[in-house]
Amino acid sequence: MYLRLMFLVRVVLIGAIVPVAVLAQDEPPTLRCYLPLIAHFAHEEPAPLLISALYYDTYRVGEPDEAFQIYNPLPWPVSLEGWQVSDGRRTVRFGLELMLPAKRKLWCARRAVSFTLSFGFKPDCEYDGNTDPTVPNLAGSALQFANTGGRVTLIHPAGRYSDTLVYEAGDVSGPGWQGAAVYPYRPSSSFSEAGQILYRKLDQDTGLPLPDTDTRGDWAQDPADLINGRRTQFPGWELERFFQPQIVTEPAHLQVIVAPDHSYAALQALLESAQESIWFEGYTFDSAALGEILASRARAGVRVTLALESAPPGGVTDQQRWIVQQIVQAGGRVYYFRANKSTGVSKRYSYQHGKFWVLDGRLALIGSENPSAESFPNDDKADGTRGRRGVYLATDAPAVVAAVRAYLEADIAPDRHEDLWAWDATDLKLGAPSVGFTPSYQSGGSSYPILKPQPLQITGVFTFQVISAPEQSLRTRDGLLGLIAQAGPGDTVLVEQLYEQTWWGAENSDVESAPNRRLAAYLAAARRGARVRVLLDPYFDDLSSPRSNLRTVEYLNALAAYEGLDLQARRRNPTGQGLHNKMILAQIEGRGWVLVGSMNGSEVSAKLNRELALLVGSDEAYAYLAKVFWYDWESPP
Questions:
Q1: CA–CA dist 191, 172 (Å, integer)
Q2: Cβ-count burial of 141 within 10 angstroms (0-12 exposed, 13-18 middle, 19+ buried)?
Q3: Residue 434, CB half-sphere, CA atoms under 13 Å: how many?
Q4: Which domains, from first to last, does the chain contain?
Q5: What Å distances lie between residue 266 and 262, 272, 299, 325, 476, CA to CA?
Q6: What are the helix (H) ranges across 46-149?
Q7: 471, exposed or middle or buried, with CB in 10 Å at 0-12, 13-18, 19+?
Q8: 617: part of which helix (H) or strand (E)?
Q9: Element at 363 (helix H, strand E)
């Protein structure tokens, strides 16, 4: 009886792929221990593999790139032989050749070639024809995921249910699901339903999916979760690769560059020192003087590579088209992030809004400013200047340089991503400038007396974190929100920002139902006793919007007065052409922190754009930039 019981236990548990402790041969049998265990696993518990993502409403005609993803949460590999996936009407079955490693995921696409074009990498299997001989095929009837909704079920080889995803109008009453279905996150028209990948929430510590509850609360589109929910993902993102930031402490040189004070001279010196390569990923490029420097470096044999946004509001100017033409004709390469709806190509990001450089593979620059005449005026500064307030950080810290290079190489990969378009002079929208166009070199002025004639240059041991959107910008363990969460009595938080929307979500939402997570963090710090100052821009402010900077300032000041908080907010334009900065300074327990980058205070910036920022622990950098902040704070309205 004892041997028979042990055999039965092993068969059931191996079928479920769940490890158990095996009794020693001399232990007596204990029926009341094992019989309930057999019933539990055989009839109640699902097998451990999970559906972890679904791509069902795609950009391509006929949607040949539809795909699902399976996740193995176990600490050992699992053979997928005999496992099945059903869409409710059709079923596909895995064969012998696929093994899913421990804690890993696997993409299976309708047609591998189409998936590769959309995602930039091959799937692990396909199920509707042998479009790629190197990709294993599933057997059965090809799945078709309805755009209006459905049920996707993962079935164990023994015929038992393993996991289910119910999305949109799918049937929520069947087994394996509780509550409402998962819908794409669409608070505004900026968040497209087409192209959204439904995916499981990721644990901020491990980067792996959170435990399964068979509800929409497992999924990143969960509208009830303000921390890990209300998210999106689109093909071409490398979300999991960049989800967990690298935080390092290492010796380095750090340069702090302030615009418009000395920004042109500082960037000019760095670019002209490049001997091997210049990489830049930016939003726009309108400085003819800086463009000529890049063209000159390209003619000198330096490998110059740029990637820019193809659709900024108002379009790409003739000025930029002229600059790009000069760089390409000098031997440089220029790409645009560009959609082509007619061929099913969509941009990976709503906007490529970052502003980051790598020079000679040894120096990284991350900042708030586009290369424009307003942010980088090249006039004589003896009588002052005029321009936009912004900041760049430059460092040779090896970990920072490696991190920024990784983003550049992932984004600027025309061999893998169709949305990267190489400049062509004949293109009517982005090609050569209008016939007879003459570039403008006008910049600067005299209304702003120079506050910082020279950049800060320091050498020491610093703590660094490169922060990216859409992957990391709203993490609460680290980054901006993690930093501000540490501020309390005696600490200071200084925010100098182009804008902070009063709330996120739809235009008709409010601060309670759709809070701006950044703004909520500043408020929480003030409520814990920190001194908080928020300085926003009036130059570009749209006063017709219910969540303009003016409304945000009024909201913060009213709340501070009502609750008795050490919190104040203002709008100022200290340098004449806008406060374009995206800078947060914090002094926490006596230590200074500086965060500088391209991230604005909108939901699109945090969740849809390519953005980059650098967080640095440095008392000297904090003190240097705090003087800039307080000068701007005290400037006339």
A1: 25
A2: middle
A3: 7
A4: 2-43 (no CATH), 48-235 (2.60.40.1260), 247-422 (3.30.870.10), 459-633 (3.30.870.10)
A5: 6, 10, 21, 24, 34
A6: 112-119
A7: buried
A8: strand 611-617
A9: strand 363-367
Going 86 to 345 to 315 to 299, the CA torsion angle's sign is positive
Quickly count: other Cβ atoms within 10 Å of residue 372's Cβ.
23
User: Which DSSP state fits 243?
Assistant: S
Tens of pLDDT, residues 600-629: 999 999 999 999 999 999 999 999 999 999
Alpha-carbon gap, residue 98 to 51, rounded angstroms: 16
Dist CA 150 CA 144 (whole Å)? 10
**Cα distance between residue 468 and residue 470, in whole Å:** 6
Query: Which neighbouring-strand residues pair with 21?
Result: none
Do the beta carbons of residue 255 and residue 393 sit within 8 Å?
A: yes
Task: Give the orientation angle of helix 318-329 with respect to helix 288-299, to 10 degrees.
Answer: 10
Distance CA 561, CA 557 (A): 6
Let me know: does 154 contact 162? Beta carbons within 8 Å.
Answer: yes
Q: CA 469, CA 411: separation in Å to the nearest integer?
A: 13
Residue in the structure block whose two tokens are 């050498």: 459
For the beta carbon of residue 132, count every other beta carbon within 10 angstroms.
18
> Which tokens is 17 given?
């792929």
Q: Are 118 and 58 in contact (CB under 8 A)?
A: yes
Lookup: tokens for 36: 């309930």
- Measured distance CA(179)–CA(168) in Å, rounded: 12
Residue-level length of the chain: 637
**Are the C-beta atoms of residues 516 and 501 closer than 8 Å to each other?**
yes
Gap between the Cα atoms of 536 and 444, Å rounded:
22
Bridge-based pairing of strands 50-55 and 197-199 is antiparallel
Tokens (6 digits) for 532: 């908080």
CB 240 within 8 A of CB 202: yes
Position 544: which residue type? S
The vertex-282 CA angle with 279 and 288, nearest 5°, equals: 85
pLDDT at 445 over 70: yes
Three-state DSSP at 290 gives helix
Check if the beta carbon of residue 325 is closer than 8 Å to that of residue 432.
yes
Is the CB of residue 167 less than 8 Å from the CB of residue 149? Answer: yes
pLDDT of 496 > 60? The answer is: yes
CB atoms within 10 A of CB 514: 21
Sign of torsion, CA 231 187 473 320? positive
Bridge partner residues of 152 (DSSP):
165
- As given in the structure block, the two tokens for residue 181 are 């279905």
Contact (CB, 8 A) for 421 and 338? yes
- Each residue of 299-330: pLDDT tens digit? 999 999 999 999 999 999 999 999 999 999 99
Give the model's pLDDT for residue 174: 87
With contact defined as beta carbons under 8 Å apart, do 220 and 233 qualify? yes
Torsion of CA 455, 518, 538, 629, to 10 degrees: -30
Phi, psi of 373 (to 5 degrees): -65, -25
| pTM as predicted | 0.92
C-alpha distances (whole Å) from 169 to each of 151, 220, 239 are: 9, 18, 27
CB 364 within 8 A of CB 276: no
